[in-house]
Amino acid sequence: MATIELAHIVKRYAGVAALTDVSLRVLPGEVHAVLGENGAGKSTLMNIATGTTHPDEGTITVSGQEVAALNPRMAAALGIAIVHQHPAVLKDLTVLENLQVALPDSVFAGAPVAQVARRMLDDVGLRVHLDDRVETLTLAEKHLLEIAKAFALKPKLLVLDEPTAPLGSDAVALLFRRVREVVAQGTSVVYITHRLAEVRQLAGRVTVLRDGRVRGTAAVADITDAELLAMIVGRRLDSTFPDKHRPADGQPNFVLENLSGRGFSAVSASSTRGEIIGVAGVVGNGQSELMRALAGLEPFTGTVTVEGGTLSQAELLRRSGYVPADRHVDGLMMRLSVRENAALSALRRFTSGLFLNRRREIHGVQASLDSLSVKAPSLDASVSALSGGNQQKVVISRALLSEPPLLVADEPTQGVDVGARAEIYAILRETSTRGVPVVVCSSDAAELEGLCDQVLVMSRGHVVETLVGSDVTEQKIVSAAVTSTAEAVSVAAARRAAGSTWRRFLTGDYTPSVLLLAVIVLLAAVIASGNGRYLSVFNISTILTAATAVGLIAMGQNVALLTGGIDLSVGPLAGFLVVVASFYVVDGAPPTMVIAGLVMMIVIAAVVGAINGSLIRFGRFTPIAATLTLYIALGGLAFLLRPTQDGYIAGFFQEAVNFSVGPLPLAFVLIVILAVAMEFALRKRRWGWRLRAVGSDQDAARRIGVGVNATVIGAYIGTALFVFLGALMFMGQYGIGDPAQGPAFTLTSVAAVVLGGTSLLGGRGTFIGPVIGAVLLQQLLNASTFLGLGSTVQYYFQGVLILAAAVIYTLVRSRRQRI
After folding, report:
1. CATH number of 254-497
2. Where would a tag sit more exposed on the chain, N or C end, judged by fewer CB atoms within 10 A?
3. Which one is the CATH code of 4-233: 3.40.50.300, 3.50.50.60, 3.40.50.1000, 3.30.70.20?
4. What single string gives the DSSP state of each residue in 218-268?
5. What is the pLDDT of residues 187-223, one digit of tens each?
6. pTM for this one?
């Protein structure tokens, strides 16, 4: 009985067939390789096998049982795990939180959570702190984290989609050992790769896809590499690598002299026209930092000379062609089209006078993409719709279109099929022959041997050996790297190890709260020094009572912002709820009427939240458009119910809301307790992890089994329920149904959340920060009265403070990669 069987699978996108009548049968305890060019349908087929994508036709059978509608959560329950080509990790969560949100609680049973998580990472050789935020990890470390999650599930079927692309030789060896171990225990493995050597090392059977169809299945031992290549590309390749440069006398056209920067030191090298320089070493020893410096992305000392002219960092940034290792982070604008991504660095080539010549742009981009055999529905298709390998080729196309004086390629063939690799190698060689210096960094020593004329082997940020000519061999490259780093600590690990606790605090979510508390104390001290009444019991109580209402609405706004959205309707909703209460929670009303009014307020809030969330998820409205619709509707309804101020709230209710013990309002004490409880849930419970996961990366969250629709709709309902609590405070403070009262609190709530440090992009924030932000805003309003300032100055002061906070938080967080 097969572990999984995909039969007659068909999948179309916009009428274009991605898979046509594809069948795949994976047996228990086997490694089954799946090969094919980029765009052949490999990843689409595996996304169907793991429930991320639904087929248009065909059947999926798991362990003899046909599955009608597979989704990621069901796939995990059936024992199916996948390591995606682009890791499904959440950059705004910590390493530990990434493990906890993706894995069931049962994985962590029987031992302390941190101990179990540490064991998972050790099993794949990942040496990072559990509290490191994932955005600080290298691409290789992100892949290892993804691999660790998959192995932790102890799956019946493990799908590995290009798992070794960014890994060094030591990490690859450890991964292969772990794969052999789980296969020996009965796990089936589907292994997608472009490297035939890996197929020979691991796989028992191989299936080849081309143009969305199965071209053949065979035992690995019964088929040659040449036959596999012919099946993959539909033709025979004469040679993978172009002929190397023939040594000739000549002046160097590219010289590095004593180049030093973050992660590397004293790098010197030179090359003549036609030579390609390679950069090698164990991953994390300064290679990528050197490449970023050559691309002008990192500051450096020393000199970079091209054709006799010295290029500064600014000139390198403006003119060099750069192919980054992580195309999703540094290489592509995923919301732009293929044409826009490819042409972005070469717009000056396509202008006529002051304007862009669209015909020239299309012709140039099309020619470049054709030379790389990029498969795309059209030039105007979104680049996110392309396969990983085709996305990589778009990045290379952009670098070449800019006609750079220097081409810097960091892992240029990562995720690219064997046919396209040969094309990329030929283009790199041709570029070098034209006189453009080419520097290539690769974790594949065999690739460097076949392509490069000289190789710089790096360890701990230093060039420990320079191999030239016949000495450029895989064996000597690996030997130099391994021998030199036997007792070394990688650059990435060393960077994190130094002052890691302080670094995590500075780039953490609680730093804004500490800064705000310091500002509150400083402001109070300054004002109190000139006016002794400022710290009176009455004044403190007034500030905290007002802050409680704003703080509750801000906490609700915070829930929406954590998902990457925003709720503009919070202010009008609060005002509308107070207007509704003014008909029920009044003096002389029987208890049943008061209770009915409060229940009605809760129901209205929940319905408004559900409408907002549904418009966003199912109506495909942007959060601003959806909530602005409710903003207008609720404001209009409030005026329909109460054209003017009327309906006085019951006195007993006002007394209860405003009850204080000394300077501390009871309501403020309760909001602090609520904020602490919500913060605990945000950090320690699956609800909080999922909320932040959706805000961090919706696609990654969906791939690990988070119900994005339910999470977003639930978040907006939660936002509205916090607004209900804020409305209760407004009822006590204002005591009357006022239809014009609410809208102003929308911007106030956003201001409090921004001051509290929550990211407007989602995924990062606290519940403590918005409460402190609300206190600071009310303190500013109160201070203006004591200082005799007008209302205009109040708003200027708030605006300057918010702007300063946004700038400071951005600068602090932008340094997290540099510390």
Report:
1. 3.40.50.300
2. N
3. 3.40.50.300
4. EEGGGS-HHHHHHHHHSS--S-SSPPPPPP-----SEEEEEEEETTEEEEE
5. 999 999 877 888 898 999 999 998 889 989 999 999 9
6. 0.78
